[in-house]
Amino acid sequence: MSLHSTLIARATAALVLTAALGAAAACSAGAKEKYLTDGVTPDQAIVAAASQGDRAAVEELLADGVSPGVQKTDGTSPLMAAAEHGHLDTAQLLIDKGADINAIKPDGWMALIAAAQSGNVAVTRLLLDKGADANAATKEGFTALMAASQRGAEDVEALLDGGANANARTKDGWTALMSAAEKGRDRMATLLVQRGAKTDFRSAEKMTALEYAQRGNHTAVIEALRTATPAPAAKARARG
Q: Are 60 and 30 in contact (CB under 8 A)?
């Protein structure tokens, strides 16, 4: 290759690289813009970006000075939004930047309950690992464990391992075991009983978990409640 051709090739490569870097920078710099439309404030935008798992936009808004712990007028924080929709990377970013893991809405709703309600096990585990209160409850007494018991055993196990009280009750007497029984979740019901959940509690309807399972004709849960027994450690806790 001649010197002239070599110089042209190098110049072309440099232009291509410059254009690529410029495009990437422009794309990155504009990530937040689609959330800042029609009078939307930066505080509102970061919650919207978090709900979409748009880490780049969240990073830009944080860099602009938006607080990671900001809450909308209804109390929703970016972390709550990320947790509800299962965006692990965005949740991690917000926590790393100082978001309050245990921030609550006026009704007591928080990120951990949102993650459990949506069945986002990875986010649930992250929040617990970072110090989320496994027994935090809404004003009505609804806990993350009750939410998780309607869904997957992994969520339930993570919460119980994180210190969640298997016998917490709402103001209406509702328990996590009733949640599992009503929804026909036999694996969750078995796990809860093994971990110390009491089967004789009654709700405001004067019904036990077994009776909720019977009402729903959930035969697997009925069998689980009749045969499952607490593990030795759970029995010891109950006696204590």
A: no
What is the residue whose two structure tokens read 């004067």? 206
Residues 23 and 128 in one domain: yes
pLDDT in tens, 58-87: 999 999 999 999 999 999 999 999 999 999
Given a contact cutoff of 8 angstroms between Cβ atoms, the answer to whether 24 and 12 are in contact is no
pLDDT digits (tens, 9 = 90+) for 112-150: 999 999 999 999 999 999 999 999 999 999 999 999 998
Residue 221 lies in a domain: yes
Helix, strand, or coil (residue 73): coil
Instruction: Give the structural domain span for 118.
Output: 18-133
- What's the pTM? 0.81
Q: Is residue 68 part of a domain?
A: yes
Residue 208 falls in which region: left (phi positive, over 0), alpha (psi -120 to 50) or beta:
beta
DSSP one-letter string for 179-205? HHHHTT-HHHHHHHHHTT--S----TT
Counted domains in the chain:
2
